[in-house]
Structure formats: structure tokens, C-alpha cells
Design goal:
Helix content is 61%, strand content 0%. The model has no long low-confidence stretch (mean pLDDT 94). Helix 2 packs across helix 3. The radius of gyration is 11 Å and the shape is globular. The chain is mainly α and 64 residues long. The longest helix is centred in the last third of the chain and has 11 residues.
Length: 64
């Protein structure tokens, strides 16, 4: 996840982002730190709506 990059570009705090997306700050931290095993499409939709971006702006595939 490139969530930290997009939040920094918008100067948005994790708390504000969490509230607007409807997640707990702890769950945002899991996403931000790349520890999430999966992301629901509804969550991805909310993230993209709040950040006014496309999924490819926050998701990045990395080969193991």
C-alpha cells in the first residue's frame, strides 16, 4: 500500500482519514504498514473516494 504517500501528499492525518473512510486508526495503520492480507472492495472504494484517486494510486504489487 502506498497510503502513506497519498496521505502525505494531501497533508491528511491518519485520524482524519480513518474517520472519513469509516475505519479505526488501528486498521488504517495495518493498511499503511503493509500488514493487511486483504482489502474489501468497499474499503478500497471509500479510500479512493476520500483521497480522490484511483486504486493504482494506493496499491502497488511487489514480487515476493
Amino acid at each position: 500500500m502506498r497510503l502513506d504517500v497519498e496521505l502525505a501528499r494531501r497533508k491528511m492525518s491518519v485520524g482524519e482519514f480513518a474517520e472519513r473512510v469509516g475505519l479505526t486508526p488501528a486498521n488504517v495503520a495495518v493498511l499503511k504498514n503493509g500488514r493487511a492480507k486483504a482489502v474489501r472492495f468497499s474499503t478500497l472504494d471509500a479510500i479512493c473516494r476520500v483521497l480522490d484517486c484511483q486504486p493504482g494510486d494506493v496499491l502497488q504489487w511487489v514480487d515476493d
